[in-house]
Amino acid sequence: MTSPFSGRPAGGAQSLPTPPSGWPIGSYATYEEAQRAVDYLADESFPVQEVTIVGVDLMLVERVTGRLTWGRVLATGAASGAWFGLFVGILLSLFNSTGFQVGPILVALATGVIFFMIFNAFGYAATRGRRDFVSASQLVAGRYDVLCQPRNAEKGRDALAKLAMKAPGQET
């Protein structure tokens, strides 16, 4: 069993990255389709522990979401600083020997806003206009292959052929 976050075997055992093994039993244009195929195999009592979804022809896609301006830089810094300052202020108030007080919360909030705005401003100024946009990066594949260990590959291929003959939404 693997950890969902690290891909490593559960229980602390570490393993080195290895290429996937197995025979291709299906190829899909989207991850959602490949996931649907494996889900179908699971519903058909197929030993899915022998199946691997492999993204092929990987691409890093960076989608530009907007223009980066001084106003946006300072507003982002203020918002981040407010959350951090609020958190620190609440902690200070909770563990205050005189009881819960609003004063430390307000001081920490204001301090967080000011310092985070300053840090963001320095970071943005250091780029000297070389990156005046905001973006989100995503790793995507050109196709997704479903691989299976050889002992069950033919059975898996047959099951996925049945899935392909069904209309979408009829797999159950």
Keywords:
alpha+beta; 2 domains; 4 helices; elongated; General stress protein 17M-like domain-containing protein; transmembrane; GSP17M-like_dom; transmembrane helix; membrane
What does this structure look like?
Keywords: Membrane, Transmembrane, Transmembrane helix. The chain crosses the membrane at residues 73-95, 101-122. Residues 25-99 form the General stress protein 17M-like domain. This protein is of the alpha+beta class and 172 residues long. The chain folds into two domains: 23-59 and 141-165; 69-131, no CATH class. It has four helices and three strands. The chain has helices spanning 31-43, 70-94, 103-127, 150-165; strands at residues 23-28, 51-67, 133-148. It has a three-stranded antiparallel β-sheet with strand order 1-3-2. Helix 2 (70-94) runs antiparallel to helix 3. It is elongated. The chain starts with 22 loop residues before the first strand and ends in a 7-residue tail after the last helix.
